[in-house]
Design a protein that fits this description.
The chain is an alpha+beta fold and 275 residues long. The protein is built from 6 helices and 15 strands. Helix content is 24%, strand content 24%. The structure holds 2-oxoglutaric acid.
Length: 275
């Protein structure tokens, strides 16, 4: 398969379910992204992370540009082929000395995709370290069926439903430390999460969810964003696009999507259409 990863890296992804680190942009450009997120908090009067979930990229054109970053898509192409759709994206931001965490979970349990070929790219806007609660993964956990998740709705959990896999062997975790501007990749079935931020600096990242254009939704028609190649399948409608930063139309969509997602009566994140 074409793309930027070597055959050995692709083989490692297939056996381990994760890869890192790779560079998407300079540390300065990443700091600019972090500054944008801080600016949004001032403008919106609340933490943008509250609803920059599922489809965060529709909040601003620069996020869509970042989703199309060449280094990211070259790596993704090596894993899922040349015709790539962006299924979604989520902001994960921890403040300095922030006790919030992300419980062990699998994205596949909530995405409603067939086949399970989605890969998540986590882009660091700040350094992401063991001390500040970087993303951690359980190697090899993408092989096998989806695991059972308990929905705890713990307010300290950055996942809306606090969905958690119990009994994960913490001592087998791999911590994917990143410099600002770097990214990691994990398979949608890879069990992953993150611990609290024990440092005096924020830890901010944006996760992009990519799938081959041939992927079907198992729960009805939804939307996605073509980011590379061609969509010859037509399984997905087009995401609404922001005309400017914090476009009121797309922000309203984001808020609606998020409200529905948190609703306990919606059985999966993926059940929520963005329009
Ligand atoms: O950023 C985090 O702490 C967790 C990220 C995550 O769960 C994901 O990228 O799917």
């Amino acid at each position: 398969m074409a793309g930027s990863l070597t055959a050995a890296e692709v083989a490692r992804f297939q056996s381990e379910g994760h890869l890192s680190p790779y560079r998407a942009m300079s540390a300065e450009a990443a700091a600019g992204c972090a500054a944008k997120i801080a600016e949004y908090e001032t403008i919106l009067g609340e933490d943008p992370q509250r609803y920059f979930k599922i489809k965060a990229h529709i909040a601003a054109p620069w996020m869509i540009e970042l989703a199309k970053n060449k280094a990211i898509l070259d790596a993704v192409e090596s894993l899922i082929g040349p015709d790539i759709l962006l299924f979604g994206s989520s902001l994960f931001a921890k403040r300095a000395n922030d006790t919030r965490f992300v419980s062990w979970h699998q994205d596949s349990a909530y995405y409603g995709l067939d086949p399970h070929d989605e890969v998540t790219v986590w882009v660091a806007f700040t350094p992401s370290t063991k001390q500040n609660g970087c993303l951690r993964v359980l190697p090899g956990s993408h092989i096998g069926p989806d695991r059972t998740h308990e929905e705890t709705y713990d307010p300290q959990n950055l996942l809306a439903r606090g969905q958690s896999i119990q009994g994960v062997e913490d001592d087998r975790a791999v911590y994917m430390e990143l410099e600002a501007g770097e990214f990691s990749i994990h398979h949608e079935r890879t069990v992953h999460g993150s611990l609290a931020n024990m440092s005096g600096e924020p830890r901010i990242g944006l996760a992009f969810f990519y799938m081959p254009a041939a992927t079907r939704s198992t729960i009805g028609r939804r939307s996605a964003l073509p980011v590379r190649g061609e969509d010859r399948h037509g399984h997905w409608d087009m995401d609404p696009l922001p005309k400017r930063d914090l476009d009121p139309d797309t922000i309203a969509v984001l808020k609606a999507v998020w409200a529905q997602y948190q609703d306990r009566s919606v059985s999966q994140a993926a059940a929520v259409a963005p329009h």
